[in-house]
Write a structure and sequence with these properties.
Layout: E1 3-7, E2 14-19, H1 23-42, H2 45-57, H3 63-74, H4 78-103, E3 106-107, E4 112-117, E5 121-125, H5 131-144, E6 148-152, H6 158-168, E7 177-179, H7 184-192, E8 197-201, H8 204-214, E9 220-224, E10 229-233, H9 239-251, E11 261-267, H10 271-282, H11 303-318, E12 322-325, E13 338-341, H12 348-351, E14 358-364, H13 367-375, E15 379-380, E16 382-386, H14 391-396, E17 402-405, E18 420-421, E19 424-425, H15 430-434, E20 439-444
Parallel strand pairs: 5-6, 5-8, 6-7, 8-9, 10-11, 10-16, 11-14, 13-14, 16-17
Antiparallel strand pairs: 1-2, 3-4, 4-20, 9-19, 12-13, 15-18
Helix pairs in contact: 2-4, 3-4, 3-6, 4-5, 7-8, 9-10
The structure holds nicotinamide-adenine-dinucleotide.
Amino acid sequence: MQKLTSYDAFSREAIGDVAITSAAEIDQLVQQAWQAQPAWAALSLAARQQILTQAFEQLVPLQDQLATLISREMGKDIRRAGYEAGGTIQSGAYFAGEVAAALAPESLGSHGEIQYRPLGVVAVISPWNYPLAMANNLLIPALMAGNSVILKPSEETPLVADAFVNALNQVLPVGVLQIAHGDEQTGKALVEADIRMVAFTGSLQAGKHIMAHAASGLKRLVMELGGNDPMIVMADADLDAAARFAVASSFENAGQMCTATERVYVDSRIAQAFEEKVVAYASQYKTGPWNQPRVNIGPLANPRQHQQVLLQLQDARSKGARFLLGRDDYALPFIEPTVVTGLTMEMQLEQEETFGPVVAIAHFDEIDQAIWRANHSPYGLGAVVFGGAGAHAVAEQMEAGMVGINQGVGGPGGAPWVGAKQSGFGFHGSAAGHRQFAQVRVISR
Ligand code: NAD
């Protein structure tokens, strides 16, 4: 039996291991999932909601343990890890109820009805940056729709996923929710197995691979992929609010967030004042291990991620970027708060998702230039515009699934979480999102 070892993101000491699921074992899991699915699907929506609610109650005493595992496996500070664990646990019952409402049959009067039926067996493949929340967002609608689910968590965060699934399985019927461990090889075997849908959160590169391999069985897809989110700061923006947001959104989760602000385009007339404020706010952030007080930027999740950020910073320096704060030669495992200006389109920092605590700034003279450049990306997850009344017209021109005006993206609770262009398709949240996990069936009578 091959083992997958999990490491502490700060100390790199081994903290535990799990057995890697072989391709043959994947086939067994899929068979068990198919065996369990009809009885699960035969339950009413209300019954599934009740069972899931009870299952989530098992997690309540585990909140601190789950938070600590998140912190240790991927590095975020314990306060943020607590929000993630607590938010996931608390949202379970409410989320299940919301999905139940969205999946109730819709009457077509005397003509018949529209039904939202199970698809069968669904694979949920999740990333490490929000290891509980990202899995949960896709698990709940998939289960509520009457599917059985096989979760393939990130190989960086197997222990927290294991603890989560084991607790839920104290209540869920056997075979309805199972876990497959391993890296992309395990993911590939799962995508190619006898399943009906892949609900994926992760990188664009992996998403393309999954889409190609799902094609032969025409498997349903929800693809929640990467982003390279722009922020436009107009001349009449509230500069203090804009600077505070630029820093907070670039540094959240050490920048390892799909909707982190990755590129800031600021009107040259106010650029100097904006940059001074950005540097002042950025200087207040403190890096450190997850369990130290006042730390708000943890270590990068792994050495590969650390190296990726350094290479982008070094590329930017070699192409003329100026460092207003920080350097391009940090030792493992931290990237200190970094602010770079003079961003150009030739730099990797502009072209690629950075996933590190970096504010990257470019100046513009004409708003149309900024809009063009903000949209000049294969990605289209989020975009943010800070400005006066004209910000609304600029926001209308953003090629993104989610646009924030003088605030972050995502909307109020219950809104869809959705990308445009190569940030994916299919989505979760809202009635339309919940229905992505079901087969629509129209009954005429
Ligand atoms: P990743 O794509 O490397 O891995 C994600 C998961 O996919 C892991 O479980 C991995 O083992 C698996 N995997 C990788 N290649 C695969 C393949 N060919 N076939 C099947 N499975 C495969 O991503 P990551 O580094 O874990 O996460 C970071 C990425 O996730 C970033 O790009 C980030 O923007 C994105 N993300 C997007 C959202 C969103 O809501 N759109 C949310 C969180 C993270």
